[in-house]
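Same chain as my last thread, 264 residues:
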Amino acid sequence: MQSTGTDRALRASQIGFVLLVFGFIYLPIVSLIAFSFNANRFPSLPWTGFSTEWYRTIFADPSISDAFLLSVLTAGGTAIVSTVLGFLGAYTDYRWRFPGKQAYLAVIILPPTIPFIVLGLAMLNFLKEIGLAASTTGIFISHTILCIPFALAVIRMRLADLPPELEQAAWNLRCGQVETVLRIVVPHCMPAIAAALLITTAVSFDEFMIAWFVSGVDVTLPVRILTLLEGQVSAAINALGSVVFGISLFLITTALAIIVRTRK
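reply #2:
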């Protein structure tokens, strides 16, 4: 009986600790969303009333609309290119063995491990040398480099479940390498490819530091949020942050649902 009571107390303490951690992480986000519906301009208690005025304000602002459109286009293009390159990198890792393979993989997965301020400065210097600094193309290139490792990791997990006999059977039936990849490997990896597209879209859409370094006159939505914070204190910023969080949450949860369902 004493052992059972101890186990229950330990379990309760573990659950309490987990809830405390999640509360510490997510309470600021909950407060952000809550204050976005506050009629008061300043994020303070008590509430002065429920209002959607701040959402109407951000949707009517042309500079926010332009930044949102740029973020969507950049994230979409980044997702497509980084997923294609991530698939090629994952398949190379899955199919072939060659000298320097570990170094090859290390170079691919390195960008997310570098502090973003360092990566942003490096990308700025590189883009200056090739004449693409302060351009939307520079943001696209930088985000693609950042997102390739995420796509590679997701697709490589799916490739680990691919029986090698399937490709061998296709080769015995006189299918070429490209035809085998298109008819066997790609359909098998399609759930992971869809998840990789969603995850890389979310990463590019949310990324701020690198975009802040390499962008010019046209800025992405996270960079626009910073400029708004520098110029004013308004609940419209809370509304804008809530919209960005909602989009990112939808993309990530959908990707995770695809991965979990595929694993089952």
